[in-house]
Design a protein that fits this description.
Number of helices: 6
Distance between the termini: 46 Å
Number of strands: 14
Oligomer: single chain
Radius of gyration: 21 Å
Length: 279
């Protein structure tokens, strides 16, 4: 159930949370939260390896259909032949000509900022819920503090993404995507996040603030593209910024469908996830 809570209740419930102009909030006390992508990927890879998967860390540069199935060439120069394949290459799908037709996907670069806090603050704030704070557009989402692989603890802020969002950049080429991921700074986003963190958490001392950049694949339908591009070649791309939380089920649909050679979405209609191609 969702619980309505007044600003004073929110401030007293969670240490350090003190938004200046929040009047009312909606709180989901059970089954709410956020997905730890690192742990999800780590667990998924572990299960795959335990079930006989041969994992290769390489870049696929071409896929050619032949009598034996599909001939895959890797950046390392190695080649392999597969009877069935899944294309789940995210924002990089259209850069290497892996598919005969090009899916209609727009690439939107956006930014997150991680605010480092000390151990004492972590202990006081670690039970903060995941939040969306939207006094303006673009709105802010806030993830509770967690410890990152470098040993530091961060509270992470991100922003809403839309085509008219001033913090979002539309990316068109492979090089633009690479440059975006490697962008050393983005002053507009930095100022935006620092402003809102200060208003949301005025009592929390920040040790450092680090920007990270992301790329979102947006489909023409607003839904994920899930379907066969051709016989024995299943495509699962276009997360639209909302797919991590349902990643396990998406993965099951992809795996079951390509093995069976037909749609295996249980009670989901295949047409709802139809791949739209560019002209």
């Amino acid at each position: 159930a969702v619980v309505s809570t007044q600003s004073t209740g929110m401030k007293s419930e969670w240490e350090g949370f003190d938004p200046v102009d929040a009047e009312e909030g909606m709180f989901l006390p059970q089954k709410g939260g956020h997905v730890s992508i690192r742990n999800l990927v780590k667990a998924s890879q572990k299960v795959a390896l335990q079930n006989g998967v041969d994992r290769r860390t390489d870049v696929v540069t071409s896929i050619v259909k032949n009598d034996a199935g599909f001939l895959i060439t890797l950046e390392s120069g190695n080649m392999m032949t597969c009877e069935k394949i899944c294309i789940t290459t995210g924002s990089f799908t259209n850069f290497f000509g892996l598919l005969r037709k090009t899916p209609d996907i727009k690439l939107m670069g956006h930014t997150v900022m991680k605010f480092e806090i000390d151990e004492d603050t972590f202990e006081r704030c670690k039970f903060l819920p995941s939040m969306i704070y939207c006094p303006t557009i673009p709105y802010v989402y806030i993830l509770p503090p967690i410890r990152y692989p470098n040993g530091k603890v961060y509270i992470k802020l991100g922003h809403s993404v839309s085509f008219d969002d001033p913090l979002t950049r539309l990316l068109h080429s492979h090089q633009e995507v690479l440059d975006w991921y490697c962008l050393p700074d983005y002053p507009e986003a930095r100022s935006y996040f620092i402003k809102w963190f200060g208003e949301i958490f005025p009592k929390i001392e920040v040790l450092s603030a680090v920007l990270d950049h992301c790329v979102m694949g947006v489909t023409a339908t607003g839904r994920q593209y899930l379907g066969f591009a051709e016989k024995d070649c299943f495509v699962g791309v276009g997360g639209n910024g909302v797919s991590a939380k349902m990643g396990l089920e998406i993965g099951r649909i992809i795996a079951d469908s390509v093995i069976a050679g037909q749609w295996k979405g249980i009670d989901l209609d295949e047409k709802d996830f139809e791949i739209i191609y560019k002209d």
